[in-house]
Amino acid sequence: MDFCYYFFFIIIYSAKMFGLYDGQMAFYLFLAIGLAFYAMKMMSTEMTISEFIVAAALMIMGLMVYLASGEKGLLLCMAVVTGAKNIDHVKLFKLLAFVGGILFLLMTLLTSLGLIGDNHHITEKFGLGQLLRRDFGQPASNVTHTVYFVIVSLVIFLYGNGRHLIRLSLLLMIINAYLFTYTLSVTGGMSVTFLLILNYLAYKVGQVTNKIGVKVFFNVAYFLLMVFSILLPICVKGRTYDILNKLLNHRMEYGRYYLLNERLSFFGRRFSPVSNTNMYLDNSYLYLFLQLGIITFGVMILILFLTLNGIIRANDKASLIMFVAYSFIGLSDPFLFNTSFKNMTLVLVGKYLYDYLGRLSQGKKIIFLPMEAIMKKNVVKKNMERLIRFFDCIALAIRSLAEYIDKHINMVLTIFIVIPLIGMLCYRALPGLFDISLLAEGDRLIYQYELIVQNNHFINLSLCILRTGILDGVILSIIVVIGRYMYDRCCRQNSKE
Description:
Layout: H1 2-17, H2 25-43, E1 47-48, H3 49-69, H4 73-82, H5 89-112, E2 120-124, E3 130-134, H6 141-159, H7 165-183, H8 186-205, H9 211-235, H10 238-247, H11 251-261, H12 284-291, H13 294-313, H14 317-329, H15 345-360, E4 365-366, H16 371-375, H17 378-407, H18 409-429, H19 441-449, H20 457-496
Antiparallel strand pairs: 1-4, 2-3
């Protein structure tokens, strides 16, 4: 019943795409439904004794961390890892890229049209005074850009090694720049840029024959990355500390505070309240080490190193790119191990962990809910066949659209450059369009509500006008590309007839 894992993942993933978060009743509802599918997947999966013991131990560890710290994230992460046995991760990533892209676009439209309220806040950046940042329904603008990073990582994993590598990267980078005009998220924009550059360099380097050298390099680099991420806030001082702290948006300051004021624990602990509500651990490894406990840290680092070496052994370049990119992004975001449910590398962790356990043990296997007994029932069998057909149809649609974009990448790239540029120039020449554009309603509501930014009237209104022109162009570009795809497909079918 592998489809149960797909449902588990997609249901909770969709909740995060909708901007739901821990503490909301709606999120708990999605979580309960998703975990019910996870339970069915685990009960119907055949495992060796060693696999069962490891899976149970990881889930118990997640539960102990929750009881000690109140943090549910690790328990959810362990569900992703332990449920990944026998899962086709490529098929899962295709479904997630499709669902994520559709829901991200939907939230953009709903918030831009003003049909649902949009989160926003004011920041001072780039020496331009107080600026409005939009969140597109997510809890924060940084989260909005992280959502886009996840979608880009899935697209790069699936299609980032094709003959149109540069053009695809340029297209994703253009959308990244468009999104930045709304979120103003420097770390988010840099994350996507880093991933695209990393992918380009990885495939331009070609095949590396010295596997031992590669293994040593990545293991040492990953070890140093984690050590520096934990020790840097308390080891660096003086002018260097001030520069890094400003560059990292106070992350050094906040990390230093928690390292000096919170004691270590085995399975995590609840932190003491702080007066500054913005003071939180924005580093996945520091969060894992301090908030979730040193035993948890040790276990997670062990299985992460197992995964890294499994990826290198299998010469799985796409997985290695994803693993490296998420590892670096974890330095400035805690989403690797919390309830954000955006760490796609956990699926790879599950895959390579079970591969490793499978090589260690080929003993007796156990199963709690035999598939044979279930599949004998006609009702279940028919529903299973429908679900399989449903997933296959989505996968086929994704593959067909991806092949079309790959074949007509020059046309698609031109559309996504020219139309948004024309939209931006039209709004610049005719600012009155901002007052009547449907997609500007979200910006208009926020701008009128936030009187404080009207002190910086020219820059904020200009930003609102320009990004509305760009958004109009992006939406129109998507409609044009999909419309052209549907038209060409209909023409091909008619010609066959």
